[in-house]
Amino acid sequence: MTTKSAGGPLLSQDEIGLLISSAGTAPSMHNTQPWRFEINGPVVDVILDEARGLPAADRSGRLILIGLGAATFNLRVAAASLGYETTFATEPDPDRPDIVTRVFLGSRRSPTPSLAALYGELRRRHTYRGPMMDLDVPLRVRDRMAAAARSEGGDLRWLDAAGRRQLGGILRVADDLDLHDEDRLTERQQWVGGERDVEGVPADALGPLPIGPATVRDLSAGFERPGRGVAAFEQQPLIGILTTPGDRPSEWLRAGMALQHALLAATSYDLAVSFLNQAVEYIHLRSRVQELVGQGARPQVILRVGYPARASAGTPRRSWDRTVIQGRPLEAPRAR
C-alpha cells in the first residue's frame, strides 16, 4: 500500500512503517507512548493521545509534550535516512489542538547527512537506570550534546560541583513528596513494574537499588520490587539541565526535539542517560532548579549522563501500526 499525492505514489507501506516505528522509539514519561500519527500524502501529523496522559504527575502536560517533541525529532531523522528533507510546524491547526506537530516531507534526494547519521542510534538509545563507571565524559562530547540541543532551540547546561550539591537537596525533597503522594503512586503503579510487553517500564528495566545515597530516580518508590539487586552508584555524576527561553507548549515540544537530538548524540558516543525529572515535576521545586540555571532559562528536563557500568534492559514499544490513523490524500506542500 502507498499514500498518494497529486504527483503519484509518495510513501510505500515499508516507508510508513520505518517512519512511524522510528518515531515510536522516543522516550516518554513512564513510557506511556502518548502519540498517534496521521498520514496525509506527504504530511505526517503527530497527535496527542490524551488517554495516555499522566494527570497526577504531569498536570500541565509539559512532560508529555516533551515526549511528543522527541517523537517528532525521530520522525525527521527517519525521513532523512530515506532521503526526504523535512520541515515542520508546531500547533499547526487551531481546529485540531490534538495535532501537536505537522511534519512535511519535501523532495527526495540522497540521505540528509546531518540527521540521517543519527538513524543508527534510534534503537540503541534507551533510558539507563544503573550505576555509571568512574570515568569523565570528555569536554568535546559534552559540547557535542549541548550543540545538538541548541540546534533544536534548547540549551543544555552542565552543573558544577556546587550546583550538583544544591540539586541533590532538591531531589531529596522531591523523592519524599513522591512517597507521600497517593495519586502519583497509584498512577505510577499503572505504568511501572511487573512484566510489560508493549508499554510502561517493566521491572527488569528499573535498575538496581543503590546501596547508599545516590543521584538516581527509583521509579519503584513506594512499592516492593523483589529480585532487583543492589549496586554502588557513582558519587559525582555528570548532570545537565535542558532549558528553553520560554515556557509555552510550543517550547515544550522544542525541548523534546532538543532532548532527543542530545540523547542520540550521547548514544553515538556510547554514553548512557537517565532522568532526574522529579525535581521539575513540582512547581515550587522547579523554581528552585531555575535558580541553578538563571532566570532567563526555563528548566525542562534533568539528565544524568555517563558510561554505563553494566548492561541494562530497555522498555517495550507498541507495534507501529497500532499508532497510525490513516488520513486522506493531500497535495504535497511546498517546502518552507
UniProtKB/TrEMBL annotation:
Which residues does the annotated region (Disordered) include?
Answer: 313-336
InterPro entries associated with the record? Nitroreductase-like, Nitroreductase/BluB
Q: Name one GO molecular function term.
A: oxidoreductase activity
Protein name, as recorded: Nitroreductase
Biological source species: Kribbella qitaiheensis
